[in-house]
Input
Amino acid sequence: VHCHNDLGLATANSLSAIAAGARRVECTINGIGERAGNTSLEEIVMLLRVRQARLGLECGIDTTQITRTSRLVAELTGTPVQPNKAVVGANAFAHASGIHQDGVLKDRLNYEIMKPEDVGLDDSRIVLTARSGRHAFHHRLGLLGIKLADGKSEAAWQRFLQLADTKREVNDDDLRKIADGESNGNGHATAVDAPNEHNHVADTLRHMIFG
Output
């Protein structure tokens, strides 16, 4: 079966063909191809793996090479992979929402249908943003070897929230400063990187609304 993705159904149509007895699916890495592209190899391969018990099929591909191969193809073709692309997108195993972060930290099966290690990644990614919760905040501090005293935990959390409102993502250097109690003189944590486009848009909106 050879499908194109003109209506975003290349993988679904290929799956239907497999269920109907097809045993050869023509795919491309990252779904690159004519017009809207072809069936994504990584999607079919991981579909067969994740639903192996139901489909009873294997393809013999080493799935741990998927991410590496995807990035190589993107680099060689000059065709970037959209962040929310299934399996290989930068956000495929990233969690920014507090409820999702809490759930995946408790049990990754709550929100992940496959393991990042299965496609060649080291782990899921917890992205600290204004939507993140306390669980993710303290988890990241723990990864950095930082343990806050009970009396400083709430103050650090408030500094995190204040900083998260001003930038797209709070990074590890920011967290170290937050844990050290550094502020800009007004009790607000200070970002360690230069303002980005997100900050510029936020500043513009504040000016339009508040003058």
